[in-house]
Amino acid sequence: MSRIVVTGIGVISAIGNTVAENRTALQEGKCGITSLSLFPSRYAGLMPFGEIKITTQELQERLNAKEPGVTRTSLLALHAFVEAIQDSKLSDKDMRCFDTALIGASTVGGMCLTDELYSDANKSDKGSDYLASYDFASVNIYLQERYKMAGIVNTINTACSSSANAIMYGVRLIKSGRAKRAIVGGVDCLAKFTINGFNALHILSPDICTPFDEQRKGLNLGEGAAFLVLEKEEDAKDKKIYAVVSGYCNCNDSFHPSSLSDEGDGPYLSMKGALESANLSAGDISFINAHGTATENNDMVESKAMLRLFDTIPSFASTKSNTGHTLGAAGAIEAVYSILNLTYQEIYPGLNCKEPIAATGLLPVQTYQKRALQHIMSNSFGFGGNCTSLIFSTI
Amino acid sequence: MLYIHQSTCISAQQTFLDVDINTLHEAVDNKLKVIEPTYESIPPGILRRMGKVVRIGIGAALPLIRQATSLDGFIIGTANGGMEDCIKFLNQIIQYEEGVLTPGSFVQSTPNAIAGQLGLFTKNKGYNITHVHRGLAFENAIIDAIMLLTDHPGNNYLLGAVDEISAYNYNIEMLSGWYKKEPATCKELYQTNSIGSIAGESAVAFLINGDQANAVAQIVAVDHIHTSDISIIENQLKYLLQHYLLAGEKIDILLSGENGDNRLLKYYAAIENITADTTVARFKHMTGEYATASAFAVWLACELFQTQHIPAHIVKNQTSEKSIKNILIYNNYKGAQHSFILLKKEN
Question: CATH code for A4-236?
Answer without folding.
Answer: 3.40.47.10
